[in-house]
Amino acid sequence: MHKAGDVVLGGLFRAHYFSVSPDLTFISVPQQHICYGLDVEGLRKAHTMTFAIDEINQNSKLLPNVTLGYSLYDNCLTLGVGFRGALALISGQQEETVTDEKCLGSPPVIGLVGDSSSTHSIAISSVLGLYRVPIVSYFATCSCLSDRQKYPSFFRTIPSDTFQVRAIIQILKHFGWTWAGLLISDDDYGLYAARSFQSDLSSSNEGCLAYLEILPRKKDLTELKRIVEVMKKSTARVVIVFADEGPILNLMEEVVRQKLTGLQWLASEAWSTAAVLQTPELMPYLGGTLGVAIRRGEIPALRDFLLKTHPDLHYNNSNENNLVNQFWEFTFQCKFAPVPAGWVENGGLLCTGGEDLQSVETEFLDISNLRPEYNVYKAVYALAYALDDMLKCEPGRGPFSENSCATVQTLEPWQLVYYLEKVNFTTPFGEQVSFDENGDALPIYDIINWRWLPDGGTEICNVGDVKKSALNQEEIKLDEPKIFWNFKSKQPPRSVCSENCPPGARMVGKKGEPECCFDCVSCSEGKISNSTNSLDCFSCPEDFWSSPLCDQCVLKKTEFLSYEEPLGICLAAASLLGTFICAVVLGILIHHRSTPIVKANNSELSFQLLLSLKLCFLCSLLFIGRPRLWTCQLRHAAFGISFVLCVSCILVKTMVVLAVFKASKPGGGASLKWFGVSQQRGTYMRGFPTFYLEKKKTVVRSRD
After folding, report:
1. At what angle are helices 413-421 and 372-391 packed, to 10 degrees?
2. Strands 7-13 and 68-74: what pairing?
3. pLDDT at 155 over 80
4. Are 610 and 582 in contact (CB under 8 A)?
């Protein structure tokens, strides 16, 4: 599709799904690729570019006195075709003999809109970047294209896969899906997305991958069957897919054959709005799909422009009219003359060119969900605004050598790149458009949901968005009541490898499994885990103990013998009774201290023995009742002193008795001289510290 102008913009679009490569025999001139399988949506994108250029040409404030033209090529979804089209656009179609010493005039095109494929854009940008020809893609999302060293003139009006991956991780985090499968296409788009997804998922600790499978480019039934078997055996209920609709169509045929249901699909922007997948046969499996989609925009006048599309019967041999004829035949199911043999005989219709587009339902006129088309619209306007800024340059104050400015006659593509990096404008829809230092657009995605309507129809519903926050982090907004869940419970599924460990237990990883798969082991006594999925148990402070569930530390309960308890009452009564008896006996001895029997019984030691016995009985009262600091410090010392005093008295009395019996023998009278009153006191005082120290050691050992 071509239109002349003062400045020409190039474009690469997918107007056909398939192509047949010519035989390369190297003995004859190779033929052109044969493209077939009309892509109506791709044709609508191409017409969106022509609409934007016409709209700009009619705008007196933007590029006044400059007419934009266009030259659009079909890439047929084939790298070779798209690459050849790009080279044809920048080099021109005809050989020109230049007689002057230098080339004058503007190049064939000053910039390209496209390509839609990341793989195509990588190849094309690698070459066109050498000449600094600006390329503004509307659908290539590979994060690798943000490398300004390799692709210095590449720009895009769609966010990079880096942001798309983070947006999908935010969806996983929002619903608590920590266990998911990942399917990718066998191209740069899928491989770079998988690499970025694994890296970001690992660094964020938001989940693990149950499996990672690469979808075959062609319909490999054996490989597709194996992939579906992996999905069926996995416990992951969430499946993330980074691929376009082609490989997914092949996969879904096998999914339907094996009747694999109960999965929650997460779609990348490459297929989240693909109408070819929203069929009655596939919706029982794909209904409820969540995905990120290109920001939807409004282009109100586009429908009227598309309605002007009509075949020109006077130029049937032109490529552009041939493409329109294909669309016309596809839409109205008719044929232009000359028709194939037997077409009319079999009831086929002849196309007249006068058919009314408004009388049929066609995707070509559906502007209710403009997403890639809106990116095409922004890409054209970005080039136009950059060109407008360049032409507004004041001579002598330009950004180039010697403060020069560029003109339409001396325009070089690299000069447009300079202004494209600084472009900043607002679309009629109210969206700001600019590029960062990597040539990427402002990151924002819509979150969409596939609704399966009761009448069997489908609807793509916008349920939220993901964008960069002021803190340069992903911010997700979801309207959950609007989400359709394709499950009996009408609730989001649960997709985890292992359930969360409750408080009081710690995680122990399973050998050979991802970190999301673990066993829960209860904490030992005295240790707690007060959060879910804790990696370790923590010891309680000295005066605390773990609760029965080991989920918190509780103050140790003070247990003591109370005076209100039967045992306490009995012990207190026995203590007082013993003290009373000792006091009575002591009183009797004191009253009769002058009698011979009391004197003969060593009254001083007897008094001390009774006194120590009284203290021993009273010491037991210190062990009854709520412990206090002074009672805890006094109880052992008081009992130890009283008990040792008592034993010392008994020891001296025993030694005196032994001495008396020994003295009763012949020649033993001399032994009594060592057990006078003074000697008895000395023996008692020496024995008391010895017994006390031994008693204290016993108490310390019992404490230990």
Report:
1. 110
2. parallel
3. yes
4. yes
Alpha-carbon Rg for the chain, nearest whole angstrom, is 47
Long-range contacts of 332-339 (CB under 8 A, 24+ apart): 332/360, 336/311
Compute CA 40 distance to the chain's CA centroid, rounded to the nearest angstrom. 36
Give yes or no for a contact between 337 and 313, defined as CB atoms under 8 angstroms apart: no
pLDDT band at residue 614 using 50, 70 and 90 as cut-offs: confident
- The Cα–Cα gap between 609 and 586 comes to 9
Where do the DSSP E strands lie in 117-207? 135-137, 154-156, 179-185
β-strand 444-452 against 290-293: which pairing, if any? antiparallel
Q: Which residues contact 651 (CB under 8 A, 6 or more apart)?
A: 683, 684, 687, 691
Beta-sheet pairing, 424-426 with 432-434: antiparallel
What is the separation of C-alpha 50 from the centre of its chain, rounded to a whole number of angstroms? 40
Q: Which amino acid is at 149?
A: Q
How far apart, in whole angstroms, are the C-alpha atoms of residue 47 and residue 376?
A: 10
DSSP states of 599-658 as a string?
A: HHT-HHHHHHHHHHHHHHHHHGGGGSSS--HHHHHHHHHHHHHHHHHHHHHHHHHHHHHH
What DSSP string runs through 400-442? SGGG----TTT--HHHHHHHHHT-EEE-TTS-EEEB-TTSPBP
Residue 649 burial (10 A CB sphere; 0-12, 13-18, 19+) = buried
Long-range contacts made by residues 280-283, C-beta under 8 angstroms, separation at least 24?
280/456, 281/256, 282/252, 282/256, 283/450, 283/452, 283/456, 283/458
| Helix/strand/coil for 528 | strand
Distance CA 502, CA 45 (A): 53
* pTM for the model: 0.71
Please name every residue paired with 293 in a beta bridge, in sequence order, or none if there are none. 446
The answer to whether the CB of 489 falls within 8 A of the CB of 509 is no
Predicted local distance difference test score (pLDDT) of residue 547:
81
Q: Are 534 and 553 in contact (CB under 8 A)?
A: no
Residue 702 has pLDDT above 60, yes or no: no
Give residues with Cβ within 8 angstroms of 260, minimum separation 6.
228, 231, 232, 285
The position carrying tokens 């997460």 is 266
